């Protein structure tokens, strides 16, 4: 993975990068042959850039990490899983609209209850 803020997640680093992480974690279950996965990949990269390391963004290739995909019950890709304090707080199956993905993340970010709809902390960089 050639992105500064995105981590390739596998069985070896799953505990340290996901379960023991204090930051919010967004897992992107994907495969190289998946068109919708490739479609949302720039958005995931954009989110990682915008958050500038404030949360962990991990990509899990389901072809290479079948055990992790099975552990999360991933049956369709892309599947996005949001984890906070080692627990799943939200899941999105399919290539959701950018606004849906951003809303899911915003709802789980610290202080999100204080934010207003007119002032989202994340904006899509075009």
What does this structure look like?
This protein has 126 residues and is α/β, with parallel strands linked by helices. It has one domain (6-108): 3-Layer(aba) Sandwich (Glutaredoxin), CATH 3.40.30.10. It is built from four helices and five strands. Strands 1-3-2-4-5 form a five-stranded mixed β-sheet.
List its salient traits.
4 helices; alpha/beta; 22% strand; globular; Glutaredoxin; five-stranded mixed beta sheet; 126 residues
Short description:
The chain is α/β, with parallel strands linked by helices. The protein contains four helices and five strands; from the N terminus they run βαβαβαββα.
Give the helices and strands, then pairings:
Layout: E1 6-8, H1 14-19, E2 25-30, H2 35-51, E3 56-61, H3 66-71, E4 79-84, E5 87-93, H4 98-108
Parallel strand pairs: 1-3, 2-3
Antiparallel strand pairs: 2-4, 4-5
Gap between N and C termini = 22 Å
**Helix count?**
4
Strand elements, count: 5
Number of domains: 1
Average pLDDT metric: 84
Low-confidence stretches: 113-126
Structural class: alpha/beta
By CATH, the architecture is named 3-Layer(aba) Sandwich
